[in-house]
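Task 17 of the worksheet. Students: predict the tertiary structure of the chain below and write it out as structure tokens. Keep your answer in the requested format; marks are given for formatting as well as content.
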Amino acid sequence: MRLFLAIPLSPSVQEALLSAQADLRRQGRGAFPPPENLHLTLAFLGETSAPDGARAALASVSCRPFSLAVGGPLDHFDGLWWASVRADRALEDLALSIQSDLRARGFCLEDRPFQPHITLVRRWRGEPPQVTVPRAKMVVRRISLLRSDQIGGRRIYTELFQKSLR
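Model answer:
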């Protein structure tokens, strides 16, 4: 099974991202994640048969709720375009702590700097889009362990476990 740890998004942040996706759709084509799949990934575990280790890592998180903000122009790499998340020390500390714990539990994670972002479209076809994400903020109050399945040509995410921040 394919697993990842992510921050679910509030309705106000999701609305800002859906507005940006609508602008993208008017300017080109690509593979757009449906609203229920929008999230901010903290750690991608890939294929694993050890969900208990990921659950234990998530359960051990010690972090207070913190603010998360989106807004501004999109960023991209090849055909992937995303909404940037305003840099926040609490978010970076949380992601690095979770990733460190997962590595200590034997998970092999990508070895690259953490860059918080929310994917809006993959396999973009068209001119570089002129899209700005409306500004929106939320308070992060929980983190989810999600399973990703490909069913009927669609990516379906199922929450396996969640950790409330206190």
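Marker's comment: Strands lie at 2-8, 29-31, 39-47, 66-73, 75-77, 80-84, 117-125, 132-140, 142-151, 154-164. The longest helix spans residues 11-27.
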